[in-house]
Structures are given as structure tokens and as C-alpha cells.
Records
---
Amino acid sequence: RMEGGNESRGALIVLEGLDRSGKTSQSSRLLSSLEGLGYSAELWRFPDRTTSVGQMISAYLSNESQLDDRTIHLLFSANRWEKRSLMESKLKSGTTLIVDRYSYSGVAFSSAKGLDVEWCKAPEIGLLAPDLVLYLDIPPEKAAERGGYGGERYERLEFQRKVAQCYHALRDPSWKDVNACQPIEDIERQLREIALDHVTACKIGRPLSNLWL
Ligand code: DGP
Ligand code: NA
Ligand code: NA
């Protein structure tokens, strides 16, 4: 039954991983696959640097500004909150969202600095819970070898090692690891297969829920 559109929604699919794990190129490939199969889908990313909050985050990441660790944490969270209602309406209208980074980055990167995990999770409570988190799993040393880091604040091997540990502590039932050291096409195919199962489940009518699961 499809009347009213309420029973057929898009899926919220998040890609997570260390810097240089391949999230950005795999997100685009996944978008093309879903669109090619006739699904309505969009690619989003956080931080969204186009908003005024996003511009403050961007200045911080490029070391043009200095901010207290808790202050920048809350700005990253605010940058997700400012998109929440649009996210909900897109999903309810049947559009699947592929999101390059989300609250898991928020908690992993800030708790890697030594902030308390529960404190880090608190401002994310009430954001939409992903239907699926695709974690591109790569050893920090391998990621560091990939064409070098771009020079932003967090792109240092020691720090990425801590981020990897923090990510591992955040696994929940929505989480799927994909080995990011495989050939690009193999990763693409695995992500597509896992994502399609979830897109289909959302069409059948799994309700939207809030973080944390
Ligand atoms: P990207 O645009 O995906 O390259 O992300 C920029 C950097 O910001 C990257 O090192 C990951 C980090 N990052 C992304 N989201 C968050 C967040 O919510 N909190 C913190 N502290 N860092 C984040
Ligand atoms: Na980056
Ligand atoms: Na990225």
C-alpha cells in the first residue's frame, strides 16, 4: 500500500571512516548506482561548509581560527541540527540520503581529543538515526600513505590512530564494516549490495528513529 506516501520513505545511509578512507569517492559512486536503479537519492556531507556555522568549522579545520575543543564540538553538532528538518522531509518524501560523515565523526573526533564520550554524544541526541552506517575500515597507517593528507587540522597519523579506536567503541546495530583496502570496484559493489537491502527495507516501512539507537 502506498497511499499518502507515509509508508514509503527514503533510507538514511551514512558513510564513516578515517580521513583518506575513500568515503567521498565511494559516496558519489553509491549515489550513481542508486540513481541508475531508479531511486530518488541525494548526496549530503557533514560538515556542510556552506552555512555560516559551516564556515566557522572550515576556518577551524584549516587552522585559520582557534576554538576550544568543546566549542568546536558543539558547532559541528549545530551544523547537523540546522539540517535536521530538511533531512526528515527529504526522507519522508521518499528520497534516500547518502551522507558523507555524521554524528559518529562528531563523537569519534572529539573523544579522540580526550573529551568524555557521553558528553560528546549528548548534543547529537534527537538527530535522526541512520538506517545504515557504512564504515570504511582502513588501518591509519594505510590511510596516511594514500596521496598524503591535505594539511587540515586532524590529518595526522597519531591523531587518526586515536580516532580509529574511538570509532570502534561506537559500533551499534546499524553499523557495517567494509574493508577499505580492497580494489575500488570491490568496495563499490559491497557498499551497493548492503545499501540496497536497507533502501528496500525502508520502502517496506521501517519507521524513522532518533539517535542514539
Ligand atoms: P571532511 O570534510 O569529511 O574531510 O571532514 C573534515 C574534518 O573534520 C575531518 O578530519 C573529519 C572532521 N570531522 C568531521 N565531522 C566532525 C565532527 O562532527 N566533529 C569533529 N570534531 N570533527 C569532525
Ligand atoms: Na579531510
Ligand atoms: Na571526506
---
Amino acid sequence: MYEGLLKQYKDYLPITDKTPMISLAEGNTPLIPLHRLSKELGINLYGKYEGLNPTGSFKDRGMVMAVAKAVEEGAKAIVCASTGNTSAAAAAYATRAGVKAYVVIPDGKIAMGKLAQAIIYGADIISIPGNFDEALKAVRDIAKTEAVALVNSVNPYRLEGQKTAAFEVCEQLGQAPDVLAIPVGNAGNISAYWKGFKEWHDKKGTDLPRMHGFEAEGAAAIVKGEVIEQPETIATAIRIGNPASWKLAEAARDESKGHIDSVTDEEILNAYRKVAAQDGVFVEPGSAASLAGVIQHVKSGKIKPGETVVAVFTGNGLKDPDTAINATDVEISKMSDLEEMRMHLRNGVSEL
Ligand code: F0G
């Protein structure tokens, strides 16, 4: 039986005899070949579907490790700032480990599914008028004076847990891809993947991919080389103007001979609709930044024909139903008459 990341990758993680082996069976997510997009783009494209983690995002990988270590070190409570997914994962793993979770979120800028999760898992939810960067600053200060463990990705155990996704990609492909495309918000995940690829390379002899990270244009601090005071994007998950792992992300980019570029909200929405409608994978808007970037880089030549590319789909589309409904103009036909339905289908099918 698969029992989660701490057991699966025990030898590669900072686990001691005293680490509680908590688990929601996180990790072990599918690497889905994207046949139609591959054909259209002329590459071998896969989606690492992190939306199938227990709370619907990659955050579970880092959170299981960070919460286990916090408990090992005697914490009774954890705290985080979040654009939504971190708070959902923190709330779930705190419950699992029997500690309390305090989560700080930007008022009105969090997708409904994520808020619902924090509520139902039983977190203490604090909403602030500022953005994620301000929330992170606040919790970093508070964690210095109060008896709470900070579980944002500035906590190194988070990146340790998250690096396991790179291990899985190498195991699933039997090799590292040529390119790993990934959304960049606070820049923890791109840093964690790169660490994971390097460790697997050292231990298992796999190659190293080029790391291609993508920020949303309205929140592209690393691309522009300056803090964005008022970040804005439809992809609220990555609405971050001062990434905490900025330097690590640049190192991942440079060491791997990769790129960090930006994608517009329009490119994000286009990729978001496309991967659902063409290949049947529903991701959240922030996650679609990776695919938007792949499309952009195939056009610009930064990704070459025939290359093997893994796009990380960091979160599940169900997290943000409002964007899905507003991003499409699909008509819902209202009918209560069976004959009307029959004719509707008959006409539709005859056109196929
Ligand atoms: N994709 C999703 C769905 C996310 O929720 C996040 C970050 C990212 C990508 C970016 O990852 O920050 O490691 O570069 N979400 C954080 C949160 C900030 O609070 O849930 P990153």
C-alpha cells in the first residue's frame, strides 16, 4: 500500500526516529501525456498533475514534511500566509497531526474552493486588507515572538518535501525531461524541483532538465528585476510581488541554463481553456501559467521541436470554479421537454 511521501522517500528526507510519519497518502501523482497539445506543438508534452494531491495542490508535499518537523520539535500550532493552497494544506495536515493552524489570507483574493477547504478542515482564518507579500511579512514577524511554527516555503522543510515531485517525474519518465515548465509565485517550487533533480542526478545518474519558470505578467518581479508593490493577475495563486525564494529561483534558472519569463493573463486563460477542452485536464489558472509558458517558448524557439517537456500543473481546476465559469461563454440549454432534448441531441450528433 502506498503510504505517502515520508515513507516513500524516507532516505532522501530529513527524517529521524522522532519524526511523526503523518500522511494523507500525498504524492504519487500521475504524469499525464497530453496527446493533442503534443501534436499541435510538435513536442512530447506531459502534465505532472499535482491537482490530484489530497488537498488538490502540490503544497501537500511540502506541508507533510514541515508539519511533521514542527510537531517533532514540539510545536502545538503552525502559521502561514497564503494565496489559498498553502492554507488548505496547512489546515489539513495540522488537523492530521493534532495541532492548530493559523492561516493569513489576502482579503477577497482567494479562490472559493481554497477558502472552503481552510474552513472545513478547521483552521483559524485571518483575512488582511493587504496582499500575500504583506501577509508573509506579518507571519514572519509573528513567528519570531510567538510559539507557532512558520510553515511557508521560507521553512526549508517545505522545499525538502516538494523536491519529491522531481524524483517522481524522473521515475515516471525513466529519465529527466529536457524541459521542466513551472509557474513561479513565491518561487519555492521551482527551487525545490531543481534541488530534487540535482539529487536524483547525483544518486541515480539521471540527466538534468532546463528549468523554465513562468510568472504572471502583472506579478513578474524576477523577470523585471524589481519588487512589484501591487501585483495583479487573474491567477490569484501566483499574485506575488516579492518572491521569498527569489535568489534560489535565479540559481535554478542559471545552473540549468533555463529561463524565467512572464505570461499575460490572456495567455494563461488560453492555456487554461485549451488543456481542459483538448486534453481533458482541468487545472487552476495559476497552474496554467506553465502551459502558457510552454506555448510561448515553442513559438520563440526556447523549446525545440521533439523535446520532452513536463509542465507542472500545480493545482486542481476545481479550486476556482468562478474563473472556469467566467472564462468561457458556453451556453447552458434549459429544457424540460424530452422530445426537445431528443432533437437537440439528434441534431448535434448528426453534425459530428
Ligand atoms: N501554483 C499554485 C496553484 C500555487 O498555489 C502556487 C503558490 C504556485 C503555483 C507558485 O508556487 O510560490 O512555490 O512559486 N501558492 C502559494 C500559496 C503562494 O499560498 O498557496 P511558488
